[in-house]
Amino acid sequence: MATLLLLLLLLLGFSAAHQGQTHDGELSVENEDFTETILRINNGSSDFLLEGDVLIPRTRNAMKCFGEPYTCLWPKSRNGKVEVAFILSDKYDPSERTRIVTAMKDLESQTCLRFVPRVAQRGYLSIEPRYGCASLLGYTGDKQVVSLQRFGCINHGIIQHELLHALGFYHEHTRSDRDEYIQINWENINKYFVFNFRKMDTDNLNTKYDYTSVMHYGRTAFGTLRRETITPIKDPSAPIGQRERVSATDILRINKLYRCWSYIG
Prior knowledge:
- By secondary structure, the protein is α/β, with parallel strands linked by helices.
- It has a domain at 49-170: Collagenase (Catalytic Domain) (3-Layer(aba) Sandwich), CATH 3.40.390.10.
- Helices cover 24% and strands 16% of the residues.
- It has five helices and eleven strands, in the order αββαβββαββββαββα.
- Strands 3-4-8-9-7-5-6 form a seven-stranded mixed β-sheet. It has a two-stranded antiparallel sheet with strand order 1-2.
- Helix 3 (94-108) crosses helix 4.
- It is globular.
- The relative contact order is 0.16.
- The active site is at 162.
C-alpha cells in the first residue's frame, strides 16, 4: 500500500511539473504556444472544426460568402460604427468576464468596431463556456456561438483570435499566397488533419503576410510528436504563433474589411 501511494505521489508530481494552472486560471503546458493550447483543448469536440477551431455551420457554406457583397460582414450602423451585439454567459466569474470585455475593448480602441450588449438584434454573438475555443466564421444574421472554455481559453490573445474568426477572418497560414512565405512540412502532419492546411480563396486586403498575426498558428500545429509543420521561408527562425494580442496588421485588416477609413493612417 505504501509503495502504491508513493507511486501515485510521484505521478502527480510529474503531471504538475508539466501541466498546471497559471496565476490567472489558464490551463498551461510547458513550452506550449497558443496553437497547441487551442488544439489540445478542442481535442475530442463533437463539432466539426475546420483548421482546429472554426465551427462549420449546418445551414450555409462557410468556405465562401454567397449572395450580395458583404453579407458575411457585420453591418455598419448609421453612426459609422460596426456594432457587434453579444451576450456573455453568466457562467463566467467576474474576472473572466472582465478579461473577455477587455479583449473586446482593445479591438474597439483601434477600429470602428463596437461590441454592444444584445437588446433585440437578430444577429449576435453568444459567448459561452462550452467545450473548447471555437467560433463560426463571419456574420450569420442569427445567434452564433463563440465557445471560450473557462480553463484554457480565457486568454487575451485567444479571445481576440476567436473574435476575429467571428468577424470573418481565416487563419494566416491558410491565406491564398501562403506558399510564398511558409513551407508546409506535409510529412510531419498527422494524416487525419492534413485538410486543415488547405489554402483558402482569401481576400488579403492588399496587406503583407504577417508572421506576428494572432491568427497565425504555431510551428507544430497538427504535427505528429510535436514535429514542425510550418516553417517560415524567408526567416526560418522567425517566431510565429504568438498569443499576446492582435498585431498591427490584424488591426489594419479589420479596418480595411469593415471600411473604418478614419482609423487607417
